[in-house]
Design a protein that fits this description.
CATH architecture: 3-Layer(aba) Sandwich
Bound molecules: adenosine-5'-triphosphate, magnesium ion
CATH superfamily: P-loop containing nucleotide triphosphate hydrolases
Number of domains: 1
Number of strands: 8
Strand order of the largest sheet: 3-4-2-5-1-6-7-8
CATH topology: Rossmann fold
CATH class: Alpha Beta
Distance between the termini: 13 Å
Number of helices: 11
Helix content: 40-55%
Largest sheet: 8 strands, mixed
Length: 270
């Protein structure tokens, strides 16, 4: 059964989708099988892994999976990512599109928050990790992910608003009554990943210095991820970092390989 992880932050543009993509690539490079779920109506992850919704081949998307919520129905929405081998046979995707917005209005329906969990039952048994890319919100869509996940990870820029957004995710997850309402008492935060670090910014250094006290020293993952054009290049060209081809991209991929190894070790120890 897959270990399910919701990648989130209440702050937009903090690197959630990049982290999800980079984790998937690095886990696949470690030989792991990954299911990606795009739970953002922006569908940035779907595009960046070459699995954008294609009306000429209309595989069901996250919206239909959640709407149906029949046990295991998510299996019908799984397709391989659009990257070459070895990624294609190791990374699967459930894509989203803008109509995922329509699920948000169901937030008040009794039990609606459990719909992704129900739909996933058995669908990711053959995967090692299921990574869920959340929108910049703590609302219904992110709550669907949290209800279905074992763990959550926050990613943020070392700036006031980014750290604040990660802190709101932490507080949400760590509140007993929230986990109870999500039907997921064992959900926990496993880490805080610092992204887009700029070495020439004193403000970043100040924020980073305060992180151990805010999140707990063992919860702030190192290495920190620097800001590199390689990340944007990978996003624009819809390829994993290693296929961008530059030394900077390979260096960036090596940092994610370290984070992926930590995830694999945590999974093994759990
Ligand atoms: N370390 C990095 N260096 C350079 N660019 C980065 C880095 N991480 C992310 N980016 C770029 O920053 C932009 C925002 O990142 P991303 O889309 O991953 O954030 P997000 O948190 O998923 O945003 P949203 O809240 O809209 O879903 C993207 O163009 C991405 O390619
Ligand atoms: Mg995103």
């Amino acid at each position: 059964m897959a270990r399910r992880i919701a990648v989130g932050n209440h702050k937009g543009g903090s690197g959630k989708t990049s982290a999800t993509r980079n984790f998937a690539a690095a886990l696949a490079e470690h030989g792991k099988r990954v299911l990606l779920i795009d739970l953002d109506p922006q569908a940035n992850l779907s595009r960046r892994v070459g699995a954008k919704f294609d009306p000429s081949k209309p595989t069901p998307t996250t919206a239909e999976v959640i709407k149906s919520a029949i046990e295991g129905v998510a299996a019908q929405a799984i397709k391989p990512c659009g990257w070459p081998e070895p990624y294609a046979s190791r990374i699967d995707v459930i894509s989203s599109r803008f109509d995922l917005e329509n699920r948000i209005s169901e937030a008040g329906v009794v039990g609606a928050v459990l719909r992704l969990e129900q739909a996933l039952a058995g669908a990711d048994d053959e995967h090692d990790f299921t990574l869920i890319d959340c929108p910049p919100s703590l609302g219904h869509l992110t709550q669907l992910a949290l209800a279905a996940s074992d763990w959550s990870l926050a990613i943020f820029e070392p700036e006031f608003d980014g750290v604040d957004g990660a802190l709101r995710l932490k507080e949400f997850v760590e509140k007993d009554s929230n986990r109870k309402a999500l039907g997921n008492p064992d959900l926990r935060m496993i880490g805080y990943i610092v992204n887009r670090v700029r070495t020439n910014m004193g403000a970043h250094d100040d924020q980073i210095a305060a992180l151990p006290e805010t999140f707990g020293a063992d919860q702030v993952w190192t290495p920190y991820i620097p800001e590199r054009a390689a990340d944007k290049d990978a996003s624009d060209s819809e390829v994993p970092l290693r296929l961008v081809g530059t030394t900077a991209a390979k260096d960036q991929a090596a940092l994610w390989a370290t984070h992926a190894k930590r995830l694999i070790d945590l999974d093994g120890a759990a």
